[in-house]
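Quick check before the chapter quiz. The format below is the same one you will see on the exam, so make sure you can read both the input and the output lines.
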Amino acid sequence: MSERKVVLYRMKLPDHECPYGLLAKRMLEDADIAFEDRLLTSRDEVDAFQSEHGVDTTPQVFLDGERIGGSEELASYLETENA
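Here is the expected output.
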């Protein structure tokens, strides 16, 4: 999977950093997967991202432009990849 483009979108507001975003980041790092870490740093950015992608939560992980999902879906995906 290392040659694929992986992008993690996660919320990091001035007063709150999403723990599920940190979990997804750690899972990708632990799996030794290179990824682009895109921070959503304002409520407006988070709302616009969720609206654009039709999702209710962050983080969201994309693989080659296809949405895998949040941290739970990423965990399932990584289990399947490593099975």
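If your answer matched, good. Residues 9 and 38 are 5 Å apart (CA to CA).
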